[in-house]
């Protein structure tokens, strides 16, 4: 995400309550009350479904290889054995659209107004939650790759030619299973101010932990204003590494 697009992102986060509900979403909701909670840049929608069986989330959007819901479902299914992530209830597609239904988790997004009003608490939860994710997911058992060569190849497949400087990353400091999109919205925060889970795991894979840390730190600027990057890194439990932060933030913006 372009860091200059904060206003656009905020608009995408909260679609109008009058947003039309696709017929497929109504079928998947099985009579539950629906509330639109997210619209992304390619027209994908996420609805909260409240019914007698609790809260579910229904993602629905155009087929798109870069944001495949089937890919996300596979990664969430793997990660759910080790850390709090949504449970996959259904996934499917037709000729034009795809959908994913997941269980709800306790807590609110770290960019809910409840937490944007308390940025110190939110940033601390994001940093600690990211460290917990990295410690919980076993690198040796992870079948998914998010290393720089994999990302460079993925970008090339989408017609993006990266400058030579971005094709030569700093030496790996520590391999972990990265979230892959560790932006602030994807950490959930409980009533106690502690992280309670992670969502949107479509790019999860093995990489240097700074690939996640850099993006999480950068996203604090978009969501809480300047001055929070170092606080996030410190909440993670390490000191800022300027070279790796700069590299992985530039890679994120370029891809």
From TrEMBL:
Keywords: Antibiotic resistance, ATP-binding, Kinase, Nucleotide-binding, Transferase. CDD domains: APH. It comes from the Bacteria. It holds the Pfam family APH. Residues 66-147, 169-247 form the Aminoglycoside phosphotransferase domain. Belongs to the aminoglycoside phosphotransferase family. This is Aminoglycoside 3'-phosphotransferase. It comes from Microbacterium wangchenii. The lineage of its organism: Bacteria, Bacillati, Actinomycetota, Actinomycetes, Micrococcales.
